[in-house]
Structure formats: C-alpha cells, structure tokens
Amino acid sequence: MKALRWHGVRDLRLDNIEEPTAEKDKVKIKVEWCGICGSDLHEYTAGPIFIPTEAPHPLSGGKAPIVLGHEFSGRVVEVGEEVTKVQVGDRVVVEPIYSCGKCAACKQGTYNLCEKMGFYGLAGGGGGFSEYAAIPEAMLHKIPEVVSYEQGALVEPSAVALHAVRQSKLKVGDKAAVFGTGPIGLLVIEALKASGASEIYAVELSEQRRKKAEELGAIGIDPSQCDPVEQIQKLTNGGVVVSYEVTGVPPVLTQAINSTQNGGETMIVSIFEKEASIHPQNIVLKERTINGIIGYRNVFPAVISLMAQGYFPADRLVTKRIKLDDAIEEGFEALLKERNQVKILVKAE
C-alpha cells in the first residue's frame, strides 16, 4: 500500500509498504482523512524531534523511516483477537498516544506525561498518511454519524486545544489572548468559546489567519501595526487572565507573558525548536505563572461531544483537501509557502 514516510529532514517519500493486519488487540482501519499537523511540519523542517532514529521506540518498536500522520479518522475493516471495543464498520478516530501504563505518571493517570511517551504516526507503528493503519484498540474512539470523517480528523488537534484551556486557570467570563492563529491557535479560540471566555484577543501577523480568527469570534490584533501587549493591556484595562502561546517563536513568549494581568497565567501550547529567553522580573513583579501542556489526556469524548454540538467546525478550519500522492508539494510545502492555509487534510485513494 502507499504510505508517506519520514526518512530525514526535508526527506519525505511516498513508499510502497506492506499492508498491515489486525493482530491480537489491534484494529485495522481504512484511513479516511488525515490532517497535517504542526508537529509533522516541524519534523519535516527540523526533525527528528519525536521520531526515533538511532534505537527503536520502546513502546512502538519502530524507528525511522516511519509513516507520518497522527490526526486521522477511519472506518474499521478488521479486528484482531481480544478486541471488544469496536467492530467492523464502526467509524472511529485515533487518540495516538503511546504510554507504558507502569511509570509514575501513568499510575497517576497523566498518561500523556509517560516516561516513554510517543505518538502513533511520529514514533513508529504506522501512521495516518497511508491507505490502512493497524492501531491498538485502546487508542480508538467511536464517532457518531453527525460527526463527519473530515471533522473526525480534527478531533486530535482539537483535543490539544481543549486540554490547554482545561489546564489553565480560565473561568467562565474571563478574558483571554491567543498568540498565533494557525490551526491549533484557531482551535484554542473554539475551546475558549466553549469554555465561556467573554473576550478573546487573537494576535496574528497573517491577515488571512487573523480574519479566520475574527470569523470565529475573536478580536484580531495585527502586531505589525501596534504593540500587541500595549493594545491588550489597554483594551482589557490591565491584561487578560490567561494568554496562550501557540507560535513557537521565542520573542512571542515574552509578549504573551506581558499581556496578562497581575497574577495572570501564560499557557505554552506550541513546540519550540529553539530555546526562548525570558526575564524573570516580568513574572516575579506581577506574580504571574507559566504553564505548559503536551498533547492531552481524557479529553477525546468531550471534544467529540462538542463537535456534535457544532464546535470546531471543519468547514471553517479546513482550507485544502488533497490526495496522498500530492501530500509533499501540495501539503507540506504549501503550508510553508502559503500563509492562507490553515488545515490541510490528506486522503489516500
């Protein structure tokens, strides 16, 4: 079958590999749609970050070259022995976190902080940029008919956004700021709306992405036209309760911190390729806090429920749909060159 595999930096290849089977507690699905994630893009331009290259991943047993793709939906076509959660024909999405179940973090229920944590589609075992995938049953969640397969491909990134908001101190009626309105930033705006934020400020250089944020109900701020910190402090009379950093750009982290009120909080949602320096006085003198999240935990059912109610709409967030054959040029390269792109979905045919 066809599969898009990572061989190295700027080295993705559409390979023909063996079609997987449903062994033991695994489920084989026909992949319907798979989204290109910012993490995939980081691996393409600056990896390896999560991809194992020297030794096999301790839980997946895989190493480069690996099949990419961890934001995907599909239809069950085969189930292995001992599988009881799903059956052939079920519509599903994948929660792609590998966790050992034995370390301190796993025993505390924080499986996304597992000592051996990895992502299906980044750490080996298979991936969504393929015709079929064989997935551990524990990673699957059913989706109702009212949630389309396209919508299903947004469950994983939406879970990142909802987890970020849930882990923050935001309460109903609070004001928030989102720095960076790429796919995750826009989904954070949706999660903030669902969580009752009264005002949401979106700081974004790209006019197209800023307009997307405004379409979703945020107040857009162009940092090329003003000092975003001064603007937010002025509009909120002292700063937002929580800011969300979703760019991975070091100077923006400082802006996100300084946009919060006394005792405010900054949530780091993005993956940084380089170190970011901050001045501790900006935190100490205002009694601010900085927090961070990786992935998500125990949130997929809530995301699916919110989607059934109309949140995280695919029609507003998906800007391009392409075939697997075109994933490199029309997908990865397009996201690097075309600032109007938000979420690109890929389908193997």
Structural overview:
The protein is of the alpha/beta class. It folds into 2 domains: 2-154 and 312-347, Medium-chain alcohol dehydrogenases, catalytic domain (Quinone Oxidoreductase, Chain A, domain 1, Alpha-Beta Complex); 159-292, NAD(P)-binding Rossmann-like Domain (Rossmann fold, 3-Layer(aba) Sandwich), CATH 3.40.50. Helices cover 28% and strands 27% of the residues. The strands form 4 sheets. Strands 3, 5, 6, 9, 10, 17 and 18 form a 7-stranded mixed β-sheet that branches. Helix 4 crosses helix 5 (183-194) and helix 4 (155-167) crosses helix 10 (300-308). The longest helix is centred in the middle third of the chain and has 13 residues, at 155-167. The protein is globular, with a radius of gyration of 20 Å.
What's the structural blueprint in terms of helices and strands?
Layout (H helix, E strand, L loop, with lengths): L1 E7 L2 E6 L9 E10 L2 H9 L19 E2 L3 E9 L11 E4 L2 E2 L5 H4 L10 E2 L12 E5 L3 E3 L6 H4 L2 H13 L7 E5 L3 H12 L4 E5 L3 H9 L3 E3 L6 H9 L3 E6 L4 H9 L1 E9 L12 H4 L4 E4 L7 H9 L5 H4 E6 L3 H11 L5 E5 L2
Parallel strand pairs: 11-12, 11-14, 12-13, 14-15, 15-16, 17-18
Antiparallel strand pairs: 1-2, 1-4, 3-5, 3-9, 3-18, 5-6, 6-10, 7-8
Helix pairs in contact: 4-5, 4-10
How many structural units, i.e. domains? 2
User: What is the CATH architecture term of the largest domain?
Assistant: Alpha-Beta Complex
CATH 4th-level superfamily of the largest domain:
Medium-chain alcohol dehydrogenases, catalytic domain
Structural class: alpha/beta
Low-pLDDT ranges: none
